[in-house]
Amino acid sequence: MFLALFSIVISIAFFAYYVGHRRALSLAGNDLSTLHSRPGYHGAFLAILTAVPAFLLLSVWAFFQTSVLDQFVLTRTDHFLVGLSSAQIEAFLRDAKAIAFGGIVSGVDEGKEFAASLYARYQKVGHVLAAGSLLVLAIIGFSWGYHRICASARTRHFVERSMMVLLVACSAVAVLTTIGIVLSLIFESLMFFRKVPVLDFVFGTHWSPQSAFEGAGADGTQTNTKIFGAIPLLAGTFLITSIAILVAAPVGLLSAIYLSDYASKPVRASAKPVLEILAGIPTVVYGFFAALVVAPTIRGWGEGLGLSVSSESALAAGLVMGIMIIPFVSSLSDDVINAVPQSLRDGSAGLGATKSETIRRVVLPAALPGIVSALILAISRAIGETMIVVMAAGLAANITANPLEAVTTVTVQIVTLLVGDQEFDSAKTLAAFALGLLLFCITLALNVFALRVVRKYREQYD
Amino acid sequence: MMKSNLAAVENASTSEMGTVSDISSVVSPIKMQGKDVNVFYGAKQALFDVNLDIRKNQVTALIGPSGCGKSTFLRCLNRMNDTIDICRVQGDILLDGEDVYNPQIDVVELRARVGMVFQKPNPFPKSIFENVAYGPRIHGLARNRSELEEIVAKSLQRAGLFEEVKDRLDEPGTGLSGGQQQRLCIARAIAVSPEVILMDEPCSALDPIATARVEELIDELRRKYTIVIVTHSMQQAARVSQRTAFFHLGQLVEEGNTDDIFTNPKDQRTLDYITGRFG
Ligand SMILES: Nc1ncnc2c1ncn2[C@@H]1O[C@H](COP(=O)(O)OP(=O)(O)O)[C@@H](O)[C@H]1O
Ligand SMILES: [Mg+2]
Prior knowledge:
The complex is a heterodimer. Chain A is mainly α. Chain A has helices at residues 2-28, 39-76, 86-101, 110-148, 155-195, 198-203, 231-262, 265-280, 283-304, 314-339, 342-350, 355-384, 387-392, 410-418, 427-457. The longest helix of chain A is centred in the middle third of the chain and has 41 residues, at 155-195. Chain B is α/β, with parallel strands linked by helices. Chain B has helices at residues 2-16, 23-26, 70-77, 107-113, 128-139, 145-158, 162-165, 178-190, 208-221, 234-240, 258-263, 268-274, and strands at residues 30-41, 44-55, 59-63, 87-95, 98-99, 114-117, 196-200, 226-230, 243-248, 251-257. In chain B, helix 1 crosses helix 9 and helix 6 packs across helix 8 (178-190).
């Protein structure tokens, strides 16, 4: 139905464009320069006036149809609903809709049958109404616009402004979605913090929400608040991220220096894309590489040296994650190092500095803010990374600085909390949202800090 | 002590002003020499058989329409062309009779002896002090902090910048005005005690007042250093230089005492250029 209406609106728009175009041409006669705007603009003007209001109506209707129908049906069936709880009423409507439009029905009774017939009837009426008003709107828009088209009509301005509205609307979608996600994160987290005090969560050192014994989720009304301490997860995240940065920062930075200042043009042209391919490898591939190759290797070496290495270790996950973020560090650093003006390099060389002295004493200090922000972006990427740690770091919520032990991270725990059957209001499930919020805050803070650093020092040269 | 030094230098300069060339300059010895210099950028030849002598304690001006190879020749003198991959230099460049392209010569040492000031002021994004201290540090010229401070102060004085910045040596060099930045770059070059200073259109990014200040400075510096300056302003060449070389399409057309070049050029092309008929 929607699809049909939608295609009708589109075809009307094409038709209107054609008519507007033709009318402008016939108004102009032989001399096109008498028109204020080119014929195409007149066509677009008419098409917009015809289709956009109709299209808006269509979207509004699509959005509200269900709730309006529900409302109508409810007013006609209230004698069946006396004494029912709101959840039961919801189930009643669900069943009625399933009877009317197909679906899984849990049980049939007279009231539901009646409601279903209402649904069927109202929906038909709704469709007719929608189609009718759609047509009326299109005709009004069309004829109003048609009579406005004249040689001096400033349809170009109208089209330009419509363009801008479209662009604003699209950016608004992006911004609003972000805000929506953050708000829902905050909202769900607040529900969690109603069950578990914020301080117990942020500063607690014990994490085992899965253990039904201790009361989490076993009974929704009783929550053991002592098993939701996020510190072990933060510690694990911190440990793995540190290892990753220890790998990625030197390798990424030095390769960026090589690429920007030492590599010849052909080497640079082929090495840079290869490095960037690293960024294109799916993280799950890194994950099983870490779990199946790196972790056993490290375990083997550790045993050779007489160390006890757990089969899933922070070291394995951190190393592989470090390799994963090398391209972020090197690519961004390469850009900022290239942005240091050649004149500074010349100035240094002109004073007798060697290439490496120039890089150490002039180029790197000048590029430092950019490099710092590249590192911070890489860190926030590492903190949010999930797949590698899920596969290689383990699930044990240990607080340890020993990279050979298994640890777990915030992201891993979010995954495990949400895998399997869940009740959406148990503390255990809600804890995932709180963890998500925590993660969001940390990466947001890092990103803001990185932007600050860049902005503060950007004007140092030029 | 520093102040009196500065005053002495300033006195000397004012008494010297207006003298375009003096007799001593004509007989002064040769400091640098270009012999049959050919330079190629890839397949394109930018200089053709250039033979030019640079005399000690004189200012030699290189003039000519843009693209004629002035900067290219200047960059040969301290091998800055080495930083351009496609650039190839043939012929001899001699410094005190020694070929600077001789593999025995260390380019680090060469550039300490032949310093360079660029067209656009390019102070490092460091403090004023660190800018000047940069050269002495990489060449290990100061044994301790106080020696370094002395070098910095002396260089800033010679560049005529000390009085303006002595209270803010810790502030970034990039915060100075354009003219001050260029004098800072000159101080930076002086700090490694070069024998020759190359300047590539050092005033082209400066306003007239800053330009006049730098021109005065160049005239003062001549006492201690040999200077080669590229300029597209013939008035500037006439004001600051004792000798002038006119380049055209990669060839050295004419060179000689500045007075002679400007009053009595031998080549038609030189005449056309200095009378503004082309370029
Ligand atoms: N880095 C370079 N690569 C290729 N060609 C260059 C380069 N620098 C200069 N050239 C060429 O060499 C010629 C001389 O340039 P240049 O010495 O800069 O002239 P000037 O300083 O007299 O204006 C010009 O034709 C210019 O195009
Ligand atoms: Mg030039």
